[in-house]
């Protein structure tokens, strides 16, 4: 199912769940102007159709504020994407990995407890066989997070 086939209420429901996946169904129903059973049925349908594939933990601003985060742009050798993706997936400090167009092939969003740990992490990424080059930018602050 694609975003274009979802109704407005489905998209609003997904936005609410993205903010707080533990929000009570009755509260969501009031916000959407729907009955609780209708909201529950929509959630079950979205799960069944694979639109919702799971629920996660959202960390507090206080905890996240103590982390040093960075974007690591990565250039890789041809035909190494699958192996490098697997190796990066095994590194818990890699929060997200995006394939991108342009000069670099991948962008990793990483988080570490300190600058020293971030430095070690970037070295670890650069040492992966097939990684040809990295360029890092430390995130100073997050202006919008959804």
Description of the molecule:
With 146 residues, the protein is an alpha+beta fold. Helix content is 40%, strand content 21%. The chain has helices spanning 8-19, 25-32, 36-48, 61-65, 81-89, 115-126; strands spanning 68-76, 94-99, 106-112, 131-139. Strands 2-3-1-4 form a 4-stranded antiparallel beta sheet. The longest helix is centred in the first third of the chain and has 13 residues, at 36-48. The model has no long low-confidence stretch (mean pLDDT 92).
Kindly summarize this structure in a few lines.
By secondary structure, the protein is an alpha+beta fold.
What's the structural blueprint in terms of helices and strands?
Layout: H1 8-19, H2 25-32, H3 36-48, H4 61-65, E1 68-76, H5 81-89, E2 94-99, E3 106-112, H6 115-126, E4 131-139
Antiparallel strand pairs: 1-3, 1-4, 2-3
InterPro entries: AsnC-type_HTH_dom, Dimeric_a/b-barrel, Tscrpt_reg_AsnC-like, Tscrpt_reg_AsnC/Lrp_C, WH-like_DNA-bd_sf, WH_DNA-bd_sf
Protein name: Lrp/AsnC family transcriptional regulator
Domain HTH asnC-type: 9-68
Which range best describes the helical content: under 10%, 10-25%, 25-40%, 40-55%, 55-70% or over 70%? 40-55%
**Annotation field: number of helices:** 6
Average residue-wise pLDDT = 92
Helix and strand content put the structural class at alpha+beta
Biggest beta sheet attributes:
4 strands, antiparallel
Rough outline:
elongated
Helix-strand string: HHHHEHEEHE
Spatial strand arrangement across the major sheet:
2-3-1-4
Radius of gyration: 19 Å
The end-to-end distance, rounded to whole angstroms, is 22 Å
Number of strands: 4
Strand % is 15-25%
- In the predicted model, the low-confidence regions spanning at least 5 consecutive residues are none
């Amino acid at each position: 199912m694609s975003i274009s086939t979802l109704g407005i209420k489905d998209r609003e429901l997904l936005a609410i769940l993205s903010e707080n996946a533990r929000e009570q169904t009755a509260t969501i129903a009031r916000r959407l102007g729907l009955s609780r059973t209708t909201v529950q049925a929509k959630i079950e349908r979205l799960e069944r159709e694979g639109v919702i594939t799971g629920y996660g933990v959202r960390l507090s601003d206080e905890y996240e504020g103590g982390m040093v985060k960075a974007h690591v742009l990565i250039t890789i050798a041809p035909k190494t994407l699958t192996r490098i993706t697997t190796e990066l997936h095994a590194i818990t400090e890699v929060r997200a990995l995006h394939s991108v167009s342009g000069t670099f092939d991948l962008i990793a969003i990483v988080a570490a407890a300190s600058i020293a740990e971030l430095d070690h992490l970037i070295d670890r990424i650069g040492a992966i066989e097939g990684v040809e080059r990295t360029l890092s930018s430390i995130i100073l602050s997050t202006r919008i997070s959804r």
